[in-house]
Amino acid sequence: MRTLLHMPFDPPSRMVRLVLAEKGLAARLVESPPWKDDPSLAAANPARSIPVLLDAPPTGGEIAVSPALAIAEYLEEAYPVSPLLPATSAGRAEVRRLVWWFEMKFEREVNAVLSRQRIDARLAGRLQYDRAAWLAGCEAMRWHLDYVSWLLENRAWLVGEKMTLADLAAAAHLSVNDYIGAVPWAEFPLVKDWYQSIKCRPAFRPLLAERVEGLPAPSHYADLDF
Amino acid sequence: MRTLLHMPFDPPSRMVRLVLAEKGLAARLVESPPWKDDPSLAAANPARSIPVLLDAPPTGGEIAVSPALAIAEYLEEAYPVSPLLPATSAGRAEVRRLVWWFEMKFEREVNAVLSRQRIDARLAGRLQYDRAAWLAGCEAMRWHLDYVSWLLENRAWLVGEKMTLADLAAAAHLSVNDYIGAVPWAEFPLVKDWYQSIKCRPAFRPLLAERVEGLPAPSHYADLDF
């Protein structure tokens, strides 16, 4: 059966789960912490990163796909129902730019010092708190939210009038940091409205139900009318 | 005119130049050092990373595309001549996995401590030499060459019997480190043969002619029969 090696609070893994759900594709979820030396992860992806999708495509054979953007491109090609990439080359280029933006820039400037420190480090048993890094992450978060606001000033979704993979990527990354209360929604009303539209989608429900042991979510986290 | 904001010894920029040349597409090359606070780079790409392609696609309008893999996907869609992605979804997924491999893993483990230190740091005027990091980079380089050898054991090119974007990505990354003599070719004859096939292509010639001031290339660097 279609299987996703993932972690519940890994933003790229969440993006892929949203893509699967939006396309109505079921997948068995297998937790695969990249900080453990797991031979099944290494066999599926020599880079030992998550997520990895194991699938039997409609055209036959078996396939192991990674990283997240390659999985999304693969699912878009193999299962074109509910497309998440625009019809034009320019639109697709803009979606890819923004997915990379979150996978690379937001990951390095925000996740690495906020959610990865608070959640992944706790799960890996090496929790530590660096106040200077945390404050730098919070400042970077505001800068990114400001950029997302700017994008939303003239568009209903990040890349135009339709929801795309760029929205799912952004929402996946924000959701994990929202779990640790690190998203100052009140200061960015446009981003809050946009996030609420995604949060209400059935695809998002399973994500909002997940919890980290010993780390309770803020009350607004799973509230659809926060 | 089609313009590429790039640096001559930036591996992702080199990959895009190879794609343009393989497709027979001319482009004006504009050097745009990401370590300088260049407003034209920020305007073309808010992430301030290179390469950025400015193009007027056949369908009309103007477009600024980044990062490198998104540029390659865009060129493949807009100019399908001389395709560099395989026809199957599985093949395309494998190409994307390997391009990410070099853009992320090889970049972090090898470029960051070898070519970026020796070339970019020199150009940015902040040259420093960290022997421990250099040795770790050389060890990582061997590990990566071993992986490429393994891929080439059963295939003529990295993803099968045809040259793809994965080969151009790998060759671009290796070429920059070859300029500083950091590729132990003699230990990896399969990789050497494969690299020679790419090095001989007309698309590669302009890259081999470039020099860094004050840093001579080893004699084998531009030698097609090294």
Automatic annotation (TrEMBL), chains A, B:
Molecular-function annotations in GO: glutathione transferase activity
Residues in GST N-terminal domain copies: 1-83
Coiled coil regions in record: none
Organism of provenance: Amphiplicatus metriothermophilus
This protein's name: Glutathione S-transferase
Record keyword Ion transport present: no
Subunit organization: Homodimer.
Transmembrane segments: none
Keyword line: Transferase
Classification via Pfam families: GST_C, GST_N_3
Single biological process term from Gene Ontology: glutathione metabolic process
Start and end residues of each GST C-terminal domain: 88-226
